Structure formats: C-alpha cells, structure tokens
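Quick check before the chapter quiz. The format below is the same one you will see on the exam, so make sure you can read both the input and the output lines.
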Amino acid sequence: MPIKTAAIIGAGIAGLTAALALARHGIASEIFEQADVLTEVGAGLQISPNASRILDTLGVLDTLRPVWLEPEEIRLVSGSSLRPIASVPCGIFALQRWGAPYGTAHRATLQKALLDAVTANALCKLHLGRHIDIKNKQALEEIARRKLDIVIGADGVWSKAHAMVPGAPSPLFSGNIAWRFSIAETQAPAMLEKTSVTAFLGPSSHLVCYPIRENAAFNIVAIVSGSSSSRDWGVAGNKAQREQMLRGFSGWNGAIRRMLEAQEPASFWPLYEMKAGRWHNGSDTILIGDAAHAMMPFAAQGAAMAIEDAFELAGMLAAHSPVEAFELYEKRRAPRIARLKQRAAFNQFAYHARGPVRIARNLVLSLRPPQRLAADMDWIYGYRAIG
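Here is the expected output.
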C-alpha cells in the first residue's frame, strides 16, 4: 500500500526536492532540519539537463532560468599553456540534444527556489532548529504530532539518519581537497570565459571556473591532493593549508598562480565519498543523495544525483508499499550511481594526468569533434528519471 506521510531528514537539495516530488503525488512530508536558518554553504553548482528536466516537472525551473546562466560550452584547457584541449557544446545545443537546459547557479539560488516552492505547498511542513538524536521513527512522530509512514535520510555525508539503517555507508576521505572562492566579474582575469564552463587541467590538480550570473561573479573550485582530519566544510583554510594548495599548482600558468595567491579567504572543503553500504533498512527508512552515495565532483553530478534520487523515490513510493518501493529504487539507482562513480574516477585520472599520459590525453581529446564528445554524455544528460 502506498504511503500517505513521510519524514525527511535534511532541508538541502535532496530533502527539499523529495518533499516537492512527494507532494506531486499527494504525499505529505515533515522536513526536519537542524539549522535554525537555511543558508546554503558552498558556492556554485552545475545543473545538467537530467536534473533541470526534473526541476521543470516540479515547477522550479521557471524561477531559476531568469537568473542562472546557460553556458555556451564546457571547455577543457591546459593549466600550463592555457591552450584549449576540447569542448562540449551546451546552450541551445543542450536543449536540442537532451531536451532540457544546462545551467550554472549559486547553490543558494537553487535552494531558495526549492524552499519557496516547499513553503508554498500545503503538503510540506518544515521544522527548523531540530537538534535531535535520531534513533527511530517514533522520535520524529512526537515532534510532528502525527503518524509518519517512512523516514527519508537526506542529510548528507555526516548523516544522522545513518543510525536508523544498519550497515549504512560510512564516509571515507578521498585524499582530495576542494578550495572554493568567487571572483567578481570586474576583477576576473581575461582567461576566465564569461559564457562558458572551463576546466583547467594539470598534474595532480585541476581548476573549474564558471560564471554565476545572479552574483556577477565567477565560481572557482580548485581541487588538489591533500590531507585532512577535519569534518569542517567551508571554513577558511589556514596558512599551512593554503601553502599546500598552492604547491599543487606549481608549474601552472603564472596568471592562474597569481589568481590563486590573491584569494583571501578561500574555503577549505575536504572531499569525502561513501563506502559501500545499505541504503535502506528494509522497512521504513531509506537514504538518498550524499547520505547514500557521496561521490567525487569530477563528473559534476552530485546535485543532479540528489535530485534524481528524490524524484524517482517519490514516484515509486506513490505506486508501491515502502518495502517494494525501496527495493525497486535501489535496483534502478544503484547501477547508475556505480557507473557515475566510475566516470568520476576516470575523469580524475584524465584531468590530473602527468607526463606521456597527459600528452596522449590532449591528443586524443583534440582529435574528437565537440559533437562526438557530447554523444559520450548522452547516458548522463539524456537520462529521463521515472517519477
């Protein structure tokens, strides 16, 4: 028997999308968030067609499109010479090939659009400032003051909902650090392309840059090898950590080095991924998004997978009992997540290649036309979630 109510732990992208997707099927949700105020940390994100298609179905895309940027292309560029290596067309091409737009925006912009839609929906109720030690569904029912059929854990890498799923995945530090900062368009160096997403590639590190139209700024993410024992994300890195970051870009083009040296402050983000584990307890609790399968950002699909997860789970819960829905969900989602993790690992190898491998990479990519490279993305961007 399909459910009537759900508890959602976490009011990030995964949790808010889940609430809207459930409401679309007439299912009410109680969303529990430990923060007193929703202020999305981080910086920009890329919303690929497989995710924007879902946002359109949920009525959120019309809010985003006037303020986000739809880049003309995704460019791969040498971090040492600044010479172009390859590109994948976006813009109108993305609409024609994948049936939905490719956009870039600040995380806060997407979260606000989702939050406004949730707040306006009578089937969604948000509980902020709930610092609860979640052990079972009953604890949430006491707060909601009504029966809740299931619990959806959408609270990220350090999920509290993990306690409700025996054998849940556990976080593993990847050995990579992401440094995030933004630069006003008026202060950005000329190498940053105002209409495109650009990935600068170099040995053991890479740099992703793209415009955030609503902020008139560029979002910059510098990813390097590093060490960390901290769970703190988004904090300003100390001097030793910044020096470690800059060493990762030694030998890069001087303009990039100067740009990185000038950034005070830059946010320090240790990157964690999830080891294999159970996504649900077989009865009334399931994990989605980063809480289930956090992955490296080398395929730029973290937010998209959270959106897909939420949408497809809601559709299955609307048609099946929780036990059946959980099994169907995992059967459909697990192969896609595994394939994307493999793609992210391959991209890391390719982006951070050294010596002869780097030369071969540049040659192979330069010989492939943009449309051929776009075809390689069909299985990601052309995916049509079932909801």
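If your answer matched, good. The radius of gyration is 21 Å.
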